[in-house]
Prior knowledge:
Helix content is 22%, strand content 37%. The chain has three helices and six strands; from the N terminus they run E-H-E-E-H-E-H-E-E.
Amino acid sequence: xxxxxxxxxxxxxxxxxxxxxxxxxxxxxxxxxxxxxxxxxxxxxxxxxxxxxxxxxxxxxxxxxxxxxxxxxxxxxxxxxxxxxxxxxxxxxxxxxxxxxxxxxxxxxxxxxxxxxxx
Length: 119
């Protein structure tokens, strides 16, 4: 069973998520009210997903302590983030995939970030 940790610094949002998880009886979800910089998980996460977080560089910097060795960061962006991609560290591999949302005429992209393998 996969386990999910839902993290947000806004306690109003985490109270809502806690209520939803309880009502849907989702036993594999833990909701935490904390800034990601202040949260720690010894095992690390296989993936970290964000929406409306800030720049990709900030996302990497503030979550790198939470990522497992071969973990991946996944970010949702509206417009293609060319400027943000240009400012990423050289050891980060990037895949950007346009996202089509049926019924909406909006531009969205999913950005996958991971450390490049050394070799």
